Amino acid sequence: MDRSLPSLNALRAFEAAARLGRMTLAGAELSVTHGAVSRQVRQLEQSLGVALFEGPKTRLRLTEAGATLLPYLTEGLERMEAGVRAVADEAQGVLDVSSMGTFSMRWLIPRLHRFRKSHPDIEVRLVAGDGPPDFGRRDRFDIALRVGPGPWPDDALATPLITEHIGAVMAPLIAGRLDPADPRSVSLVPRLESVTRPSAWSDWWSLVAVGPCDLGGAPHEHFYFMLEAATGGLGACVAPWTLVMDDIRAGRLVAPFGFVASGQTYVALRRRGRAGRKADAFIDWLAEEARATPGPPLP
Question: Rounded to an integer, what distance in angstroms lies between the CA atom of residue 244 and that of residue 252?
């Protein structure tokens, strides 16, 4: 089969410039100067015999030919990158990990120094993410840390880490208003919510009480902001033990009604069938840290 194609560097330069909209941004992504990107694009246009951009340099627009070519190149480069990442088996270098923001701040990052000490040749690079991972896309991460009931995507291999337990938590100064024997007494204090987990109160209520749930509260954009508000005495919120255990132990938060299993699990996800020594080492370490993480106190 005759695969007579223009220069791969020229194709990459055009795809980046067209996708990002500026030669300078494309140069930064490809680690070359914007002049080098411009030369590669001109070379590609000469090779194809058509113009791919039009307009002034500061406001480039794709021509009809450029708009036609772009999606083919983007898909092709994504598939090439996915293929390379699928077979790469390196024991050192950068390991990209997608993780939920508050889980990273409250559980993962405080423990990462131990992984670095035991694996100094592996650099863990974190990116925030909480949606279902799609390892076939150009997401550029090797492992995804998520929480949920499952099942997980077909292309992902899940390693269970921690069974989630949730409870209503608040600062000690407002907990004195409540009756620890009656979860309904939580209605006596302000309730806090997070837009990232809007069903937290109803989920908790269904596990600890019977009857209708009318426990809506003030929404916060991020889960971390909600926890800080609770620590500051602004109200009660429903939170996982894993994310608040240090605050509970330090006395910054209390859980008058204890913690109950939510039916969800923290897991480490990776592409099914992919062998990678960096990812193996990190997941083994995660599992060890998870086993060492104490569960909530018994009621």
Answer: 9
Q: Kindly tell me if the per-residue pLDDT of 104 is higher than 90.
A: yes
Q: How many helices (H) and strands (E) does the chain have?
A: 11, 10
Structure tokens at 259: 């913690």
Write down the pLDDT at residue 139: 55
Give exposure, 215-236, as e/b (b: 16+ Cβ within 10 Å): bebeebeebbebbebbbeebbb
CB 139 within 8 A of CB 266: no
The more confidently predicted of residues 245 and 153 is 245
Q: How far apart are CA 247 and CA 169, in angstroms?
A: 10
CATH number of the domain bearing residue 133: 3.40.190.10
pLDDT tens profile 162-190 = 999 999 999 999 998 899 988 889 988 99
| SS3 call for 294 | coil
Total residue count of the chain as it appears in this document: 299
Whether 60 and 54 have beta carbons less than 8 Å apart is answered as: yes
Domain coverage including residue 43: 8-87
The two three-digit tokens of residue 55, written as one number: 């307009």
According to the 3-state scheme, what is the secondary structure of 196-208?
CCCCHHHHHHHHH
- What pLDDT score does 214 carry? 67
Provide the H-helix boundaries in the chain: 8-20, 23-30, 34-48, 64-87, 101-103, 112-118, 172-175, 200-208, 223-231, 241-250, 277-292
Integer Cα distance of 26 and 39 in angstroms: 12
CA distance 104 to 243: 9
Q: Which residues lie below 8 Å from residue 39, measured CB to CB, with a gap of 6+?
A: none
Greater model confidence, 37 or 93: 37
Does the residue 271 lie in any domain? Answer: yes
31 assigned to some structural domain? yes
At residue 103, φ and ψ (nearest 5 deg) are -60, -40
Residue 81 tokens, joined: 């990158």
